[in-house]
UniProtKB/TrEMBL annotation:
Entry's Gene Ontology molecular function annotations: catalytic activity; metal ion binding
Name of this protein: HAD family phosphatase
Family the UniProt entry places it in: Belongs to the HAD-like hydrolase superfamily. CbbY/CbbZ/Gph/YieH family.
TM ranges: none
SUPFAM superfamilies: HAD-like (SSF56784)
Cited InterPro entries: Beta-PGM-like, HAD-like_sf, HAD-SF_hydro_IA, HAD_sf, PGP-like_dom2
Organism of origin: Streptacidiphilus fuscans
Amino acid sequence: MRYDLVIFDNDGVLVDSEPLSNRLLADYLTELGFPTTIEDSYRDFMGAAAHTVHDVIAERYAGAKLPATFDEDFHARVFASFRERLTPVAGAPELLTWVREQGIRYCVASSAHHEWIRTAHSVTGLRPFFSDDLLFSAQDVGRGKPEPDLFLHAAERMGVAPARCVVFEDSPLGVAAARAAGMDVYGYAALTPRQRLSGATGLIDDLGQVPALL
């Protein structure tokens, strides 16, 4: 099928940020008195909007609240790590170059805030591929994945029917959101176990497999 719009998740699909951000999140929550392993963070928060961390902690710890500056402080730690260590996912620059050369329309739809997305793109050299009108965040719609709002918002703003979109995702929440939006979705299983992405239209292990799907 020839799709009219390719929607990329950002973290874990285009930039190799998941190991960095989930380690930092687990360490920070543990530091605050909420013991969390990196495996816990992957399971509970990967692909989720920022408010999910607050919601989960409140649910598990009898209404406990994270510090008012938690999001700001966590982002500062992540951005510092990004500037030192973040790299693009293997094959991402080449794939984006190919997509653009083929004239295929594309965008990013991420649970992360716009500042997070822009910082990641600047550090990894992907910024030239994305003007502001090609970046969509859960910040824009209020409800993040697994709700379909973000993907539907991106499709509407790009002027493409959901059924004509294909999504590339690396989290179960993202796969569920794309399916709920009525879109085909391919799970990128480089980090996430394949069985956790079983709801996807198909699975890939390497971004080099994407051109054949488009």
